[in-house]
Design goal:
With about 100 residues, the chain is α+β, with helices and mostly antiparallel strands. The chain has one domain (about 10-100). Helices cover about 15% and strands about 25% of the residues. It has one helix spanning about 10-25, and strands at about 50-55, 75-80, 85-90, 95-100. A hairpin with a 4-residue loop joins β3 and β4. The radius of gyration is 16 Å and the shape is globular. The N and C termini lie far apart (about 45 Å). It is found in: Secreted.
């Protein structure tokens, strides 16, 4: 790694995440490497963090969206198996909730 500023963790976490995703793109099976002490990623509600999840997540209105996805995986918070994302819009905010299918 080149220049990371004051904290190597600010460079190490995104760099290792990208390395892990590139490994998955090449057909590898990277292990979960984030821990409570290193690069922890917390997710809202009952969502689960995945290092390599589909960017085309299923929604309640399109429950098979992921099956037609051609995009490479991405890290982030995803609904657990058996649930879907539902977009709630009100006049003051937009939020996502997971609903059991």
């Amino acid at each position: 790694m080149c220049h990371c500023g004051n904290s190597s963790a600010t460079c190490a976490c995104p760099t290792m995440s990208e390395y892990s995703r590139q490994c998955a793109h090449a057909g590898g099976k990277p292990q979960e490497w984030k821990t409570n002490q290193f690069c922890l990623k917390k997710c809202p509600f009952n969502m689960k963090y995945q290092e390599c999840g589909s960017p085309c997540t299923d929604t309640c209105s399109n429950p098979q969206r992921n099956q037609h996805c051609q995009e490479h995986c991405t890290d982030g918070c995803f609904c657990p198996a058996g649930t879907c994302t539902h977009l709630l819009k009100t006049t003051s905010y937009v939020s996502y909730v997971t609903i059991i299918k």
